[in-house]
Amino acid sequence: MDSISEARRHLANAKEILSEKARKEDGRYQDKKYIKMAGHTAYTGVLLALDALFGNKKKNARKSVEWYQVELARIDKKITGSFADVYEILHLSMGYDGVQNAKVIIIGLQEAENIINWTEQKMAKAVA
Predict the structure, then answer these.
(1) Which of 16, 51, 84, 86 is the most exposed place for a label (fewest CB within 10 A)?
(2) What would the DSSP string read from start to end of 61-107?
(3) 82 within 8 A of 34, measured Cβ to Cβ
(4) What string of DSSP letters covers 3-41?
(5) Residues 6+ apart with CB under 8 A from 18
(6) 22 secondary structure, DSSP code
(7) Residue 61: what pLDDT?
(8) Alpha-carbon distance 108 to 82, whole Å?
(9) Which structural domain range is residue 42 located in?
(10) What is the SS3 assignment for 23?
(11) Residue 59 has what pLDDT?
(12) How far apart are CA 8 and CA 35, in angstroms?
């Protein structure tokens, strides 16, 4: 479960970056540099959790978003939709575009937390 702790740490760091550096005013974050940083950090946390669940099936290669979607669909089709949201919001909209809308960012972070919790439950069942 050490990977889950690391995933949660990444998510907490992303929230800290937003609250301390991105300057929220009137429901919008102001500094795109820190929005992008937070998006990449949170998305990395999700990938850490999923990599712990899936193991090292694809050695010495970067996994594509499609690879994660296929692997998730084999286990739970509902979580695949959550992962698509996380990819779209955290990785693309925040990480690359620097989306400033706080409501959108909150949804992305909540979905990330849901995936990390789901992963923790799946791993606990596998151990039991």
Answers:
(1) 16
(2) SPPPHHHHHHHHHHH-HHHHHHHHHHIIIIIIIITTT---BHHHHHH
(3) no
(4) HHHHHHHHHHHHHHHHHHHS-EETTEE--HHHHHHHHHH
(5) 24, 29, 34, 35, 38, 105
(6) S
(7) 73
(8) 9
(9) 2-127
(10) coil
(11) 62
(12) 18
Task: Summarize pLDDT for 92-103 with one digit per residue, the tens.
Answer: 999 999 999 999
Neighbours of 86 (CB within 10 A): 28
CATH of the domain at 102: 1.20.120.330
Predicted pLDDT of residue 62: 81
Assigned token pair, 11: 């998510």
Q: Is the dihedral of CA 3, 123, 53, 106 positive or negative?
A: negative
User: What is the DSSP secondary structure assignment for residue 26, as one 8-state letter?
Assistant: T
Instruction: Look up residue 22 and give its two tokens.
Output: 């991105």
Q: How many domains does the chain have?
A: 1
Nearest to 69 by CA among 58, 84, 59: 84
The average confidence (pLDDT) of the chain is 94
pLDDT of residue 52: 93
Token readout for 33 is: 């540099």
Segment 30-77, tens digit of pLDDT: 999 999 999 999 999 999 999 999 986 666 678 899 999 999 999 999
